[in-house]
Structure formats: structure tokens, C-alpha cells
Amino acid sequence: MIPAESLATLQAVVDEGSLDAAARALHVTPSAVSQRLKALEQRLGRVLLIRSKPARATPAGEVLLRLARQQQLLEREALAELGLDEARGVELAVAINSDSLATWIMPALHRVAEREGVLLEVVRDDQNDTAARLAAGTVMAAVTSEEVAVPGCRSVLLGRMVYRASATPEFAARWFPDGVTAAALAAAPVIDFDRRDDLQTRFLRSITRQRIDPPRHRIPGAADFADAVRLGLGWAMLLDHQLAAHPDELVELAPHKPLEVPLYWQQWDLRSASLDALADEVRTAAAAALA
């Protein structure tokens, strides 16, 4: 058996970022935190923590971190069911991509919080990276583009987000007078969300079948990103509802070349009423909003 105190200590160090901060959170000395971690590592014969700033779990540590959070969730649900934890609701950490947060998923989160009394910690990340947070044990569920389930989790298709190359009519007339050609795409400024955003690059390759490097702006904010397109800063991939919301301000550059991104819901594979309630709400909302 792995002592619950040891798991809690490992979780505290990862959550707080250092041994000193974990000691303050646990109301013990830094020496006690260090001794607990050393004893756990010796007991399992594995290095569990990268003692960096902030501290990070090793792959072996991520397994135990996930176990610690699962036990914490089930314990909190049991106490709530017994009426012994009324002051604080069950806490659910979930990783969600920016476009889902900005468009369809917030009403689902609101409904489950109101009905179940849960407390939500939403971690925003790219849909290509949210599953990694689930694997690391820092979240309990994720909206992700990864179909293959993270070990210890289950995966279900939510639907597809449909993106279309979009710009203002003035931008299109200036940069694409002869249509969306490879030469025009190489010259026209493009807007990326951040350096990990590959949607525009995928569209470029689907049209040109080659690697081109146009001028790039990077606007890391869902609302600001769409506003930048509407202001004519560049072209970018926008969702159908974003185009429909501004029919006089935005045009589709390549009507027959949409880009579809499948989204999956992955969550811990354990019996949790709170987590299952969240999953049900997310699936219902996705069925209404996604293709």
C-alpha cells in the first residue's frame, strides 16, 4: 500500500511548485516534505519528482499524481454523499481548448456546476496538448483532438469543429485579387493564435501542397483573435458561427476547402458521479454545437 500522506505530499509539491510551498500548504516543515518524498521514492525504487522550478512529476510520478487526485475526488464525493462536506463542493479540473471555451462549452459547465454543486478548475490549452495534461495527472478530463485514450482513461468522439479561411472583403480584394493561389498565400499576412497553432499552416498545405512561410501575426486570445481578422490584420481560420455573426465584415476565402478538427472527450476511467455528470453535459452540448 502507498501511504495516503505520501501521495498528498507529492501532489502538494507539484501543485504548489516547490518543497517549501508544499510545506506551507501542508503545515509541516520543508524537511518533513523532503523526507516523505525520499521515503516514497526509495519504497517504489523510482524517481518521482524533478526538483526544478517549478517542481515537476516524472512519468512515474505522474502515475502516482493521477492516483492521488482520483482518491481525493472519490473521498470528497463520499463525504458529500454523507452530508459531511457541505462547506465545499467536489473539485473537478478539466483541460479545454480555447475555441470550445469561447463558443459552445461554457453553458454545459454552468449547468453541471449549478446542479451538482461542483467547483471547476478549467485549464485552457491547445486541443493538441490537453491530453498531455490528462496523462500528467494535472486534470481529470479533457477536450482533445487525440482519439487514442490516455492510459487509465476513456475516450468518446464529441464531434467536429469546422474552420474556414476568413478575412475582410477589403483584405481579400487586396491580397487575393486572382483567388487563393500559392503565390498570394505566401505573401498575405496570416494570424496564428500562438506558436503552437497549426490550423492556418494545415490550410496552407492543403491548398499549395508545399511548405510556405507567409508573414505571421500571433494573437493569443479567442475574442482578440477574431477581432484581429475583422480589423483586417490578416486572414485566419474561423468557425462557422464567427463568420455568420459578421456577414458584412467577413468573407470566406476558399468556400470548398473547410478544415475539420475532431474533438474527443477523455476522462479518468473510474466511477465518479460528478465526473460522469460533467461528461453527460459536455456530450449533450457538443451534439448540439458540433458537426
From TrEMBL:
Transmembrane segments: none annotated. It comes from the Bacteria. InterPro entries: ArgP, LTTR, LysR_HTH_N, WH-like_DNA-bd_sf, WH_DNA-bd_sf. NCBIfam families: argP (TIGR03298), PRK03635.1 (NF002964), PRK13348.1 (NF009888). Residues 2-58 form the HTH lysR-type domain. GO terms for molecular function: DNA binding; DNA-binding transcription factor activity. It comes from Schumannella luteola. Keywords: Activator, DNA-binding, Repressor, Transcription, Transcription regulation. Belongs to the LysR transcriptional regulatory family. This is HTH-type transcriptional regulator LysG.
